Amino acid sequence: MQLIAGLSPVPETCRGGVVAIGNFDGVHRGHQTLLACAADEAARIGCPWGVMSFEPHPRSFFRPDEPVFRLTPAALKARLVAALGSSFMAVLDFDKALSELSPEEFVRLHLVERLAVKHVVMGYDFHFGKGRKGSPATMTELGAKFGFGVTIVEQVTDEGDQHSAFSSSAIRQALRHGHVTAAARDLGYHWTVLGEVVRGDQRGRTIGFPTINIILDKGADPFRGIYAVRVRDALQPDAVMWSGAGYFGDRPTFDTGRTFLEVYLIGFDGDLYGRQMFVEFIDLIRGDKRFASIDELVTQMKADCEAVVTRLAALKADDPMTAFPLGQMQAEGKT
Q1: Cα 288 to Cα 62, 174, 248, distances in angstroms
Q2: Quick one: which of 2, 35, 39 has its CA closest to 17?
């Protein structure tokens, strides 16, 4: 998949196609339906299809002091979109200049002149342009004016769960409450973190549980506790998969005052510093707590690891929640 950053030149192979436009945080099952519509339309008219999204998240631009819990920061979103078959992903810088474009200026500059779109696919609730004045009806009118087709995808619901709608906000709330399996049902895959392994304070080694440490993006706020996780190298996701006991929290027993994502890889002893890793959150084992002593903590951690092994062993080999084989989550090329 071709990544087109900001106002970089658009390769000719990415012009004249179908464009799905939106924030797509999470690339959840509702988003997947919308992207499937784009793929179907592209196949019908015989052209490439791609995605237009924005960085940072518009809420971060308008309210910089209120970090957004991003389900899929930019790098992971690109990999998910690539796994769905997108030919390109245009990522616009959401800045003051972009925020002040009228709906028509936005469409003319970024969809018509830069991408020469033949067709646009967007959700029923997506708005664009200064003051969010551009609506689906606006896009339909501008499509008629500039000569491109428009498909508006209505709200997508889960027919098997009282017709509940798929929503990034609802998934964030599920993760904040530790409802990892509920989040996975709406995402269509296990919620996944992609990040670099950094050096921690080495405290885990002193108690027999060395961990890899990954810094989450500012605003990430899953439930604090111990999770059953699966870990893979982002560059070689099909080479090996480790079972792990993942911890997200503030280490109340040690009064660190800092928030961590650290993972004890069961049965692994090695150096992974600097490697980009996928961490898939499979299920919550227990909530965070303060222990009276290190010995009490170690005893609980041993029990946690046993629970993790049991939980991960219960997953089927063809785990139905792995909608995106990690080996296919490659976003190649950048302009």
Answers
A1: 33, 17, 8
A2: 39
- The domain segmentation of the chain, as residue ranges, is 2-158, 190-319
Residue 43 and residue 142 in contact, taking contact as beta carbons nearer than 8 Å: no
- With a CB cutoff of 8 Å and minimum separation 6, the contacts of 77 are 24, 25, 27, 53
The per-residue pLDDT for range 72-124, each reduced to its tens digit, is: 999 999 999 998 999 999 999 999 999 999 999 999 999 999 999 999 999 99
Q: Among 263, 252, 230, 243, which residue's Cα sits nearest to residue 306?
A: 243
Q: In the CATH scheme, what is the code of domain 190-319?
A: 2.40.30.30
CATH number assigned to the domain with residue range 2-158, chosen from the 4 options 3.40.50.720, 3.10.580.10, 3.40.50.620, 2.60.120.260: 3.40.50.620
Q: How far are the Cα atoms of 207, 244, 254, 309 from residue 302, in angstroms, in the given order?
A: 11, 12, 18, 11
